[in-house]
Amino acid sequence: MFDWLPYNTLVVLIGVALLGACSGVIGCFAVLGRRALVGDALSHATLPGVGVAYLLAGGKHFAFMLVGGFVSGLLGIGVLAILKRFTRIRDDAAIAIVLSTFYGGGIVLATLIQQLPRGGQAGWDTFIYGQSTGIVWDDVQWILALVLATLVVVGLLFKEFKLVAFDSAFAHVQGWPDRVIDFAMMLLLLVVVVTGLPAVGVLLMAAMLIVPASAARFWTYRLSHMLFLAAAIGSGSGVAGTLLSSFVPRPTLPLGPCIILFTALSFITSLLFAPERGLLARFYARRRDRIALLADLRASKETL
Question: What is the pTM of this model?
Answer without folding.
Answer: 0.86
